[in-house]
Every structure is written in structure tokens, then in C-alpha cells.
């Protein structure tokens, strides 16, 4: 059996390759990092990258823009859920899942105008700014931040996410809308769960969506809200009435419109009653559908079909149909 002979020259060349390999890998890593940074842009116009590494890879979003935020003043009960006081608002950003302690970087270039209380805000100076919540600040007020390069802070313990709010002229807009955070793809489809009557011409529709990427950890499997809920009333294939119940594809309504959008019985994931967070309890998203009495009075009495459609920011949609007897309306 022939024996391979390795010459002294060959051994020397191999040694040089072994020494050079770490340098080559370091150069490739640096080039890759530079490529990521260059693809981030400034974030002050058009799309921007993610605030946690890798910046140019999509991360799980465990709470959507416009999700219900419910803090009931009283202890958990049907009375509190259906009629109780509290603080009710639309979620003003997105919650991006990431481990506690993860470094958070600026998605936009600009000046740091806040860095305290678990929040950092970076202002572009052109009407656009971003808020980064639930982090221990590492940046300081007045500092110039560079998109994809400036460390803003670290995710606080027991948070498991970074909340990102995008502001345009002081109004929150949807980071998941086309042209904003990138890359973002969503192939999941919202679901219309059912409908119930709340009196003459008033109905409640249950609808949920699934995060585009599976969320790890304690928030795995929890729903998010669709971006759009619409309805139409048909008879014999013709539309008699139609309306939009919920639309946060771009912006959210003012919080005083909360109970005009959502119906009583709505609660957030891990709802809060009397200051106590009920861990592990999934959210319930109920939407109001109210037929205009004057318009309904012009309808020919009979059987109609109420068609409800739930849609996400990428246009994925599902529809359910419900027979509706308006003979006595």
C-alpha cells in the first residue's frame, strides 16, 4: 500500500494556511457586518432594519400594532370584564421577541432625546422618531445615534422583548406596514372565530391572527389582532350595507375610541385586573359591528348574509358568513 509523503515545503504551506485562516474568517465577518450596516440605511426615510441582531433577519413579533391593552381597575370577574372601569388603549408599537439582556441598536440615525425610565428615543429631525421601550439605556441624551451601529441599551430582565414605536410627526404608525421594518414577511392568515348578537342591529365578532414567526418562551402560541376587520351585508349576492370595524394597517385611532372598536369582553394577552397580571391567560379580541338603524330601515325585510373579513398588513385574509334574519328589524 503506497504511503503518502508530505514534503517540508508542503508542511510549511499548510502551517501558513492554518495561521491565515482565522484572519480570513475575521475579514469575512467584518465584511458581512459592514454589509449589514450598509443595508440598514439611516432609518429616517423609507424602510429600516431590526433593532436586535441580526439586523437584516426577521424576528418574532409577539404583539401587533393596534392590539388591545386592557388594565381593569377591579379584580377579575364578569362584571369587571363586561362593564368595569380601567385603562384601555391601542398598542402603539410592536413587541419584538428577544432574550433578556440582548443589546438593542438604533434603527434610525439621529439625536438621542430621551434615555431614562427604561426607554430611549432617537429623533431623526425630519418628523420621524423611534422609541425603544423596556431597555436599560446605554446611550445618553444629546448623543448622535447611527442606524445599525449605536448601542442604545439592553433588554431588561423578565421583559423578553423590545417594544418599538415609530412616530411620524408625533403620531404612531404601524412598523409592520409595507415600507417600514424590513425584511418582514407574513404567510399566516387571520381567522374570524364567530359572531353573537348584542341587541337589535348590534353584533360582536371574534377574530384573531397568528404571529408571522413562532414566538419562543412564555409567549409562545398567544394570538395577535388582525390589522383590518370589515363586514358587509348581502342579499341575493348584492351588497346592502358595508363597513369597517377595525383598521390599524397604518395608524391607530385615539384611545377614546377603544370601546367603539372593541366590544366588551375583550382582554389582552396576560390581562391585568386590579394591578395583577394573569400570566398565561390568552387574549380575547372582540370587535363591534353595528348596522346603522336609518340605513337598515330601508332594507327589504328578509334573510341576509353578514360577511366578516379579517386581514393582516400583508393582505392575508379569511372570511366567514353568517345568516341574519332582518324580518323584524
Which structural class do you get from the secondary structure elements?
alpha+beta
Level-1 CATH class name of the largest domain: Mainly Beta
Tally the beta strands.
22
Mean pLDDT: 89
The name of the CATH topology of the largest domain is: Immunoglobulin-like
Main beta sheet, described?
8 strands, antiparallel
What does this structure look like?
- With 329 residues, this protein is of the alpha+beta class.
- It is built from four helices and 22 strands.
- Strands 1, 4, 6, 7, 8, 10, 12 and 13 form an eight-stranded antiparallel β-sheet that branches.
- β7 (119-123) and β8 (128-133) form a beta hairpin.
List keywords for this structure.
329 residues; alpha+beta; Glucose Permease (Domain IIA); Immunoglobulin-like; 2 domains; 4 helices; 15% helix
How would you summarize what this structure contains?
This protein has 329 residues and is an alpha+beta fold. The protein has helices at residues 8-40, 78-83, 258-261, 293-297, and strands spanning 61-63, 68-72, 86-90, 94-97, 103-105, 110-116, 119-123, 128-133, 135-137, 144-145, 151-155, 161-168, 171-173, 191-197, 202-208, 228-235, 238-247, 272-273, 276-277, 286-290, 303-311, 317-325.
